[in-house]
Amino acid sequence: MSEIIETGAQSAAWDKVGLDELQRRVRRTIVDLAATPTGCHIGGSLSVADILIAAFASVDRAAGDEVILSKGHAAAGLYAVMHHLGIMPEDPVASYGAAGSILTGHPNHKIPGVRFATGSLGHGVAYGVGWALARRIKGDRRRAIAVAGDGELQEGLCWEAFQLASGKGLGNFIVIVDRNGGQNDGAVDEISPMPDLLRRFEAFGFDCAQADGHDPAALGAIIDAHDARGDRPLAIVADTVKGKGVGAIENNPACHYAVLKPAVAKKWKETIA
After folding, report:
1. Which residues of 197-235 are buried (b: 16+ CB within 10 A; e: fewer)?
2. Could you report the per-residue pLDDT of 110-165, keeping only the tens digit for each?
3. Where is the Transketolase N-terminal domain (predicted)?
4. C-alpha 115: how far from chain center
5. Of 218, 233, 99, 116, nearest to 169 (Cα)?
6. 206, 234 Cβ separation under 8 angstroms
7. Cα–chain center distance at 259
8. pTM score > 0.90 for this model?
9. Phi and psi of 123, rounded to 5°?
10. Which sign, positive or negative, has the C-alpha torsion 170, 172, 173, 178?
């Protein structure tokens, strides 16, 4: 796999094709990844895609910023976004899930552009806090953006990490919650509800914001406005739709994981507007 393109790729891709077209291309690639022999976690990948676009467009990885997909099962979304932003030059569909490929069902550190292997829920959040703390110890305030799922927040490790982020005054730590309302076994509200999520983060000493998780420009504005040199981490609760962009599976709990037939994938791609 080619070396990662560290700087300028995000904004260049966005400006070249336009945001709407970028979002469409990302979603079509996710559907293609679901049509490979191994399939993918299509619902969560489609819900998190726009959040990842905003996160990567807001950081400078060459300077020390990191984007960490803590909900690692949405790897297809990560690979699609990295590809269409120019960070991953090769089309991930060609090798995803194949024997010997580094493009596995959960991200791993062998992939250029992925620093931490994730998939065990909660771990990516903790990695992000550790990265933000390490950058501060090094004398700068480069940022760590951890992208988590709402179901993932049922893991106690997340809240231990949030407590540390606040206690250490890590204004350079940002968590974005992909609140699509679903998880593997059904609706989050029916399994382990988390009402008043913003108030919970506020109680942990975070600055808080709520946003449309499918509006990368709005998300990017919130990220860019946050003072990374301050002593309060930032939590963004991004409201999303599981399966976003594919009408046949939007808000359908059954879309958590899928292995699509090529004809179905072709039909679904044609509906992505």
Report:
1. beebbeebebbbbebebbbbebbbebbeebebeeebbbb
2. 999 999 999 899 999 999 999 999 999 999 999 999 999 999 999 999 999 999 99
3. 31-269
4. 14
5. 233
6. yes
7. 21
8. yes
9. -65, -40
10. positive
3-state secondary structure of 97: coil
Residues 6+ apart with CB under 8 A from 245: 23, 24, 27, 46, 272, 273
| CA atoms of 50 and 81, how far apart (whole Å) | 8
- Residues 50 and 216: beta-carbon distance below 8 Å: yes
CB atoms within 10 A of CB 195: 7
Q: For residue 263, with 0-12 CB atoms within 10 Å meaning exposed, 13-18 middle and 19 or more buried, which class applies?
A: exposed
Copy the structure tokens of residue 50.
Answer: 């726009």
> Which residues are within 8 A (CB) of 81 and not within 5 positions of it... i.e. 6 or more apart?
26, 49, 52, 53, 56
Residue 196 carries which side chain, given as an amino acid letter? Answer: D
Contacts of 14 (CB under 8 A, 6+ apart): 22, 53, 57, 85
